[in-house]
Amino acid sequence: MKSKTYKRATALAAASALVGSVVIPVAAAPAETPEKFSDVPTSSSHYETILEARALGIMTGYGDSTFKPDQKLNRGNVAKAFGKYVVAKSGLTLEEYVEANNISEVENFTDVPNDWVDEELVTYSKIVKEAGIFKGANNKLGASRLMPRDQIAEVLVRAFGFENQEGDPGISDTDQSGYAKSIETIYENGISNANPYRPLESTSRGQFASFLVRAYKVAEGLDPQSPYPFPVESVHDVEDLTISVGETPELPETVGVTLESGVTTTKAVEWNTNDLATDEIGTYTITGDVADTDLTASVQVVVKKPTYSFPVTYGPHPYEVNTIVVDTEALTGSALDFSNYKFNGGPLPSGTTIKIGEKANLFITLASDQEVTEDFEYILEIQNVKTVSGRYLIEKLVIGEDGEVEPVNIKIPGTFAENVPPTLVSADYVVTSEAAEITNTIQLTFSEDAMLIPQDWDDDITFKVGDTEVNHESVYYDGDGKIYIEIPTMDINQTSTITIVPEGENNERLGITDVSLGRNPVVAPATKTITKDDVVVIGTAEELAEAE
Q1: Which of 49, 104, 233, 453 could staple 213 via S-S, CB 3.0–4.6 A?
Q2: pTM more than 0.90
């Protein structure tokens, strides 16, 4: 941000100089207390800057506690305001400034001659003319004309020395004005946040307050969108906190404050918890030092006996592997704290996710970033998970050795599904004897036992003899961990290929999986070429029956 920066004392004096009948009508009177203006609602976009304008002495309200934010300003009002700003910025009195800068020799605007009825306007119009803030079309001030917003942008840039920044801020309606560059400059410097800017509309008192306060902040190197750093007048009350015995209260990191301007904001607070006994039932008042002030905040912490929610229904998700569903009432954020869970006595596996459902269900999806080659049993323990009603989820209550009632944590047994998909190891022609020369079946062997899940398996297999694709008749498995494909009868001296397709046309996922709990689909695509050397002998059904 490029701008001229003035020392605080000078800037404050300059800002104070903006007060007067040029901006505030004769009937107006400075507010003695930071009361809210009756005609400036908190929903107004100018609410905070109007309060700050009053506190800075830039603008005040009327004696009836109104500000009249929608009242329009004329060029004479604004010329006087900026004339006083120029004088105050110099550090001189009006008389000293006039003499030092030979203001009496400055050519009058033709419509504000020396004998003009408003002597103050005569002087200040010369000052702003000499300072280059007001130039006037055809050397006329047009004091009674309403001041459009684009001209306000121009005089702000001239008065405060704001500089244009590189790039196009993209204000949509600057082509309507001859002051496009000044409009862009005050937008880039944070003096205006309006896009479109509405350059030809007249300027209201509320808008002028916002323009001046933001310009004042930027001139002091402050963020124009943040409250001006007036001293804190009061600290807001903090809502009581209720915890169960043994819990640590979540004390707020900031507290609400009201500044002397009447603007509300927040300040950091450092709490003193030396007198808080979280292991004893009672009500404790905790105080904290509010940053940048000598004020303190306070909050009451109520420590109560814990209550419990049980029994709790839980079980595996019907469709999602390694996911546990816990049916409960609405839960607090404690349900998302991984430290409240133990997996076989240790932390949750890396990659585990926890989600609270729309119907208060808790979904815990276990995961592993390492290969799990076999299904294994586990115990998931849940502790310190709290409902929004303040009750802890537990399995049950029991009577301890000391006769006191004690909670028992939820312990959910489950089976963690292996996550290694099987691979196709071999494909063989099935023959009924070593002398057989024909086959009508192919056997697929995988790195682990495989099975079929119910769907259209035919789309998972492509069978070719030579380069010709041949329809296969069925795919099945006999429970021996291998997959069998029935094909048209063919000579085993012919070479063929079998390809497992990742997704068939009618399949949502591959129908050939391992036999684990996770039903991992085989790695695909996978192709095997079958020759006369790739033969497995399996007797006929009659021979097998006789052997038994």
Answers
A1: 49
A2: no
